[in-house]
Fold:
Amino acid sequence: MSTLVLVLATGVGLGALYFLVASGLSLIYGLMHVLNFAHGVFLTLGAFIGWEAAQRMGASGWAAFVVSILVGGIVGTLFATVTELALIRPLYERHIEQVLVTVGLAFAAVALFEGIWGSDPLYISGPAWLDETTSLLGARIPNVYFVLMIAATALLASLVVFLKYTRFGMIIRAGVENRAMVTALGIDVKKSFTLVFAIGGSAAGVGGVLAAHYTGYVSAHLGQGLLIFAFIVTVIGGLGSLAGAAIASVLVAVLQQLANYYLGGTGDFIVVAALAVVLLARPRGLLGRRPA
Structure:
């Protein structure tokens, strides 16, 4: 029983990490119809700069941990904003060019990161509590999973409140439904879309720092590795559905952990098989919109 609890709890924690990465992808596509293959760059850059900030504060204390998260979020926000203004905005409604530009940025960024920080992983340390465990129904759960769950829950709640109950959120949703009408009312939709990109970058930057603590290291390929699962989660949940991404994140991660433990480490294969089944049986995903 304790083994099953451990597998399920670690699956939910891993799903929280997937959601931190996938939420930005889902938000950007759902509101702007941009498939951003450079999203992993925001995550990796946030992790590296967050690591640098923590190193200068002693690396292992709570203050350094909190500052690294804040710095990672800020860096992700700034880089995402610059990316939208310089590369994405001129290419709205030109989807092939968007894919080519973001894929090119992803490859170039990995090479740049390796040139600055090297190709070997940089191992990190955080507060000692993160490396400890907490007993839950007889299982010893690593505390880092609880941090991931709290962060993902806070992010989901914040995004829902922002989109439903703030002026910018209403403008963004209206701009997605009828951009021409909103523009005719004198509202600058472009600024709102830049804000969406910034929010996605912020979530990725925070996710990058937490991913580094989850894995124990940061490397130039950290974001690209997680981006694969983020895309799987986004497609299974339904492109553009934030709630779908949250549900799919947990389902995919739990399925992956169960398969890894009980089916001889076949978690990645089972996840890809699940993606194929969803694409064949329900192409729009669990909560995706039905095509008009």
Remarks:
- The mean pLDDT is 87.
- The longest strand covers residues 133-136.
